[in-house]
Amino acid sequence: MKLYMVPLAPNPTKVMLYIAERAELGVDMGIEQIVVNTVKGRHKEPEHLARNPFGTVPAFELDDGTFLVESLAIIQYLERKFPDNPILAGTPEDIGHALDVERVVDLRLAGPMGGYGHAVNSPLGYPKDMEKAAQLEAAMQAPLDFLENLLSDGRPLLTGEQASIADCTLQASCQFVRFVEQDVFGDRPLLRAWDERYRERPAAQTVLKW
Ligand SMILES: N[C@@H](CCC(=O)N[C@@H](CS)C(=O)NCC(=O)O)C(=O)O
To answer: Which residue has its alpha carbon closest to ligand 1 atom 2?
Structure first.
């Protein structure tokens, strides 16, 4: 199995954090990680489009030569392929909540965080757009409040004591925001503490570069 990725991009980073968290749980999935140089536009070239017709990363090659092109599908595939010590663990209710928080992070927050980073200080050289940045900042407030509220019951990580896919998804976007030297947490001390706590994890330290 091969993961085609690029280190700074949030969606590949989410899968890389997931793989590292499973490794911490003693599950070595033997996945080769191959960098696609997106700065040079390699993700839009025929070699990568044959893996993923949308020209995005990650792309995940299964042993039968087929590909998965959605980060959450890759993670859910790996949960079923390697069922010992899963990250989506616990009761159906636990798993429901873990997936729910991950979807909130991915669908309501990750997009605005990425767009905000590009609007204020794009690593790909996109022009600054402060009007768009203000709109995206406004869009982030409800999901950030939702997460701050989750953490108010004293849980150390987003869905409880154990690292979850939601932690991987959020931290992947946080790394991108750090790289562009921005801060989107505002006055949310619990999220700031979560960020520091998550980044101390061995899995995070093996994956995160910024
Ligand atoms: N829904 C996809 C999104 C993949 C995606 O948009 N990846 C970004 C990097 S984080 C990308 O490749 N962007 C380049 C582009 O869209 O041209 C997933 O979860 O994997």
So the answer is: 70
Q: Is the CB of 111 under 6 A from ligand 1?
A: no
Domain positions in the chain? 2-81, 92-207
Q: For strand 67-68 and strand 32-35, is the pairing parallel, antiparallel, or unpaired?
A: unpaired
* Ligand 1 mean position, distance from CA 11 (Å): 6
CATH superfamily, region 2-81: Glutaredoxin (3.40.30.10)
CATH of domain 92-207: 1.20.1050.10
What average pLDDT does the chain have? 98
Tell me how far apart the alpha carbons of residues 2 and 116 are, in angstroms, rounded to a whole number: 30
Rounded CA gap, 83 and 80, in Å? Answer: 5
| Residue 124 pLDDT | 87
* Mean pLDDT value of segment 62-70: 98
The span from the CA of 125 to the CA of 113, in Å, is 17
Q: Is the C-beta atom of 57 inside 6 A of ligand 1?
A: yes
Q: Output the residue whose Cα is nearest ligand 1's atom 14.
A: 56
